[in-house]
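Q: Predict the bound structure with pyridoxal-5'-phosphate.
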Amino acid sequence: MFFQHNFYAGPGALPNSVLAKIEKELRSYQNSGMSIMEFSHRSPQVVDVINDTVARFKKYLKLDDAWELILLQGGGSMQFLMAPYNLSKPGERIDYIDTGYWTQRAIHEAKDCERDLQIIADGAADKYHVLPDLEGIDTNTGARYLHICSNNTVVGTQWHEFPKVDTPLVVDASSDLLAREFDLSKVNMLYAHAQKNVGLAGITVVAVRKSALLQPESLPDMLCYQPHIDKLSNYHTPPVFSIYVTNLMQKWLEEEIGGVEAIAEINLQKAKHLYDVIDSSKSFECPVKISDRSTMNVVFTTGDDARDQAFIDYCAERHIIGVAGHRTHKGLRASLYNAVTPEDVTALVACIEGFDAT
Ligand SMILES: Cc1ncc(COP(=O)(O)O)c(C=O)c1O
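A: Predicted complex:
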């Protein structure tokens, strides 16, 4: 089958111009006669790519000298574990807002860290289709930090503004890093894997305030941030190709799109286009509260599993892929990451309208 429009939730679409650049340079990086994949991770060519990628992330996130930014392996999931180890001490309290699947995974991975993990609010009563209201909840608990997920990939909610609490935040931004601007004034750490909006699976971006870093208890060096900081994200062999593609994505975002502010506006328009057509259709509905709806992952359904599957098949016949909901959630989901174009959304909208008319 031939697919033209990719709405997968991750890994997600890559821009055509980035793919073209990879193709062009694959066998001879910058006319060197060698592929970037063949260079040593200590070569000036690779060190330059790593340093440039780190510098650009710092620039896009507007990080000053109070911050460190490193590229690690292990995906978003490894940070569920590394954050507690590096930002808190054994026995200390860590708070979570449970907004569904990925925050639950974060809590699960941290359960053996010997910390006091507490869920201060959750969206279970609303099947996670509404972000918890913190009104009346005591958020001043003395926790070392409060963990949130800025965009909930599975259920389709997004914190358009981070919760206003006194406890410093640790934010899993795996599905909206560089897709919108963040206010990091109350944030101690923000992490995100690359494979949705910013590049390829293999690297995870970790931005952490220097003042929040603790000397971890006896831990293997690989699990401590400090060696990775000291060695400038080159403590051990990094996934060079992933970093290289991420660097191309950054250049695409800056030079072809106009930066994070510009893509944020495009992403808003894409999401509005799709939500509007879902809301006005007779076959589909979006279960997510309007003010909490994600600009990244549009979750919707016909309300009937067989009919949802019929829509997935209808899309495939029209060269559209990736619209099935998460396996735990079912239904339908279209992910509108940075590389998904307004034209892709228009193609999906035409499918929704066509299916609606059948
Ligand atoms: C918000 C969020 N956090 C964490 C993860 C887990 O990331 P990884 O598969 O890189 O470990 C995902 C995966 O899609 C996610 O959407």
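A: The radius of gyration is 21 Å.
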